[in-house]
Specification:
Elements lengths: L1 H20 L1 H74 L5
Amino acid sequence: MKLNKLFLISALGFGLYQTYRHREQLSKTFRTLKQDASQVQESLDQISDALNRIQSQKQNLTTINQDLSYRLRLYNQESQALLGQIKQQVNQLENHLPTSQ
């Protein structure tokens, strides 16, 4: 049991010594990771805002699409009616014009 404890204490001491020895490099790495994590969070916030804007614009575009579809149907109905009247008037004019032979 004493040998296991001695080995464990030795390994722990070696690990602490190596940590202390490389403390500056580890500190620099942790600072870099912290900055990277901050930048990732900012990017996620920007992406979330962009997705929210896209979602709200999607609803606006759906409304505009419905409005344009309705107006197109009305335009087609009105144009068909007007084309029918024009055809009738053209036919009447053709019937009243003397035929030349």
